[in-house]
Design a protein that fits this description.
This protein is of the alpha/beta class and about 130 residues long. It is built from 2 helices and 8 strands, in the order ββαββββαββ. It has helices at about 30-40, 100-110, and strands spanning about 5-10, 15-25, 45-50, 55-60, 65-80, 85-95, 115-125, 125-130. Strand 1 (about 5-10) and strand 2 (about 15-25) form a beta hairpin. It is elongated and about 60 Å long.
Length: about 130
C-alpha cells in the first residue's frame, strides 16, 4: 500500500523550514509510513500530514531527474449479467514531462486484456518514493 507523507525540516544551507512531499511504499499501517519518513532525517523533522495514496501501483521505475505523475485510468469490463462496469483508478508514472508520462501510460495500458481509457495525467509535487 502507498501513503502520501508531508515532512517539514530545516534546510541546513539556508536555515529556513522546508516542506517536502513523499510517497511511501510497502507499508501496512500509517505508523510504518511515518517511521520511514522520520528515518530519512534521523528524526530531525516533523510529519505534518499523512494519508493513504490513491495510487494503485507505479507503472515504471524512476530515473534521475524525472517527476512523478498521476495517471487516471478507466477500466471497462462486462459483468456476468452483461452490463458494463467502469473501474476508475490511479497509477504512478515516472516521466520527464507530460508527453513522456502519456506515452508510458499508454504502453502500460496496452498490456491489459480489457478496454482501458486514459482519463487524465497530472504532475504531482512529490519529490521521491521511499
Amino acid at each position: 500500500m502507498y501513503y502520501e507523507l508531508t515532512l517539514r525540516h530545516d534546510n541546513p544551507d539556508t536555515g529556513k523550514s522546508v516542506q517536502e512531499r513523499y510517497i511511501v511504499k510497502d507499508c501496512e499501517v500509517f505508523a510504518e509510513a511515518e517511521c520511514k519518513g522520520l528515518e530519512m532525517y534521523n528524526g530531525e523533522c516533523d510529519v505534518t500530514a499523512i494519508r493513504r495514496s490513491q495510487i494503485r501501483e507505479f507503472v515504471n521505475d524512476s530515473s534521475k531527474g524525472e517527476f512523478i505523475f498521476y495517471a487516471t485510468i478507466v477500466d471497462v469490463f462486462l459483468k456476468d449479467d452483461g452490463t458494463e462496469k467502469e473501474l476508475v483508478y490511479k497509477v504512478g508514472v515516472w516521466a520527464n514531462d507530460i508527453a513522456d508520462a502519456q506515452k508510458t501510460t499508454k504502453e502500460y495500458m496496452e498490456q491489459g486484456l480489457n478496454d482501458m481509457e486514459l482519463k487524465g495525467i497530472n504532475q504531482t509535487k512529490f519529490i521521491d518514493v521511499i
